[in-house]
Design goal:
The protein is mainly α. The chain folds into two domains: 1-51; 53-118. Helices cover 75% and strands 0% of the residues.
């Protein structure tokens, strides 16, 4: 037997351990949040911190798509239509605060740049 292979018992214990850790990090913060006397004084701080989660998650999803090209190199060149389209969409979002206008402007800019320069 190779020393890197796990026995059935080791595999089960590993899975049970991963399940316990995954459950714990998801359950206990919510369990503590429901207890007002323990969590109540930190509720405003938690609400403020949690309000930034969607922005952080969306940024971490979108930025690699916008900046990294097929070669795996960060591209700030004019040929990076994703970058220019996202900058237009960002500007429109700041000016209008309208999600539909933001999406349409970003997609429209990308389509226009693709038609004109490809």
């Amino acid at each position: 037997m190779n020393t890197t292979e796990l026995t059935d018992l080791q595999s089960l214990l590993l899975i049970a351990g991963m399940m316990a850790v995954t459950f714990g990090i998801r359950f206990f913060p919510f369990a503590l949040a429901s207890k007002d006397k323990l969590w109540g004084k930190y509720q405003t701080l938690a609400d403020t911190a949690l309000s930034f989660v969607p922005v952080a998650v969306l940024t971490s999803i979108i930025m690699p798509t916008v900046l990294i090209r097929q070669s795996g190199i960060v591209s700030f060149s004019f040929e990076n239509f994703h970058l220019w389209s996202s900058l237009v969409a960002f500007g429109v979002s700041l000016l209008t605060r309208n999600l539909l206008m933001t999406v349409v402007s970003g997609l429209g800019t990308f389509a226009l740049l693709t038609v004109l320069f490809h």
